[in-house]
Design a protein that fits this description.
With about 280 residues, the chain is mainly α. It contains 15 helices and two strands. Helix content is about 75%, strand content about 0%.
């Protein structure tokens, strides 16, 4: 029994478990890429082929050379994702700062509401937003999609950023005020640079939520001119079948920005989420 406990506690055992979990999580990504480079006969082979015997990048070539809408969808996704990121940061930073610094009546209730809003799935917000946006002519518009995605990312952003502001001493603003700065100047020039890790975390995750949104795009758009890349994927599923290699090729293209953002901002995302979860 002692040997078993020592084995479980050893770093090698933990490494093996972590490796197995990583493989399980990454297998769908691997399968998506492998399917995108398989010819059609290998996609439907039985038993399934776990690697392509005759790999081909024809699906990628066809999408980039014969599908001009692909670049439009990518451009639309960039606009929506960047707009969601910027609007979330613009609204979340002052709101979380106010919840951390000001004596607001009912602050505890506000935090509970924000937590509850995180539990509401997008599909439940889609219909009310459609009704409201239809009345103010925001259907089939980038602004409508950006606002819709922000409703999903904003509560998370406030909850993550607030502990950062709570961790900063009030003496920082007081020193700035003594030096002649106003409250906005102290917030912008002194406080904001100190919460950059939190801003990077919120910005990255908001960008990814905007990039990967499908529910709001499906509900709030009927015009292909504003379709994001996630909606473009639906064109490969038709009445008579699905173009799996083309679908997976575009899915790989869709996943590349997500992978790049997490790789490049991994330090900020991990430290930001960890710091935001323990400070109060």
């Amino acid at each position: 029994m002692t040997k078993i406990n020592n084995l479980i506690q050893s770093k090698y055992f933990a490494t093996v478990i972590a490796l197995l979990v990583t493989i399980i999580y990454l297998f769908p990504v691997y399968w998506m890429f492998v399917t995108s480079i398989k010819p059609t006969n290998e996609i439907f082979a039985y038993p399934p082929l776990f690697y392509p015997e005759n790999p081909t990048f024809e699906a990628y070539i066809n999408n980039f050379t014969e599908n001009p809408d692909l670049f439009k969808y990518i451009f639309n996704s960039v606009i929506i994702a960047l707009g969601t990121c910027l609007l979330t940061l613009i609204l979340a930073a002052p709101t979380s700062y106010a919840l951390a610094r000001l004596k607001i009546r009912g602050k505890g209730l506000m935090m509970i509401v924000l937590l509850c809003m995180q539990m509401i799935p997008n599909i439940m917000l889609a219909l009310p937003l459609f009704i409201m946006f239809n009345k103010i002519s925001l259907i089939n518009s980038f602004i409508g999609l950006i606002i819709a995605n922000t409703t999903h990312s904003l509560p998370f952003a406030i909850l993550v950023l607030r502990p950062y502001f709570l961790s900063l001493p009030n003496s920082l603003e007081e020193a700035a005020l003594i030096d002649g700065s106003n409250k906005f100047g102290a917030f912008w020039k002194i406080i904001m640079p100190l919460v950059v890790p939190g801003l990077m975390t919120v910005g990255a995750i908001s960008f990814l939520w905007g990039w990967g949104d499908f529910v709001f795009a499906l509900t709030l758009t009927t015009n292909e001119s504003v379709w994001p890349l996630t909606m473009g994927l639906t064109k490969f599923s038709g009445e008579f079948g699905t173009q799996w290699n083309n679908l997976m090729a575009v899915a790989v293209i869709t996943a590349i920005p997500i992978i790049l953002v997490f790789i490049s901002l991994q330090k900020f995302i991990v430290s930001g989420l960890a710091s935001g979860s323990v400070k109060d």
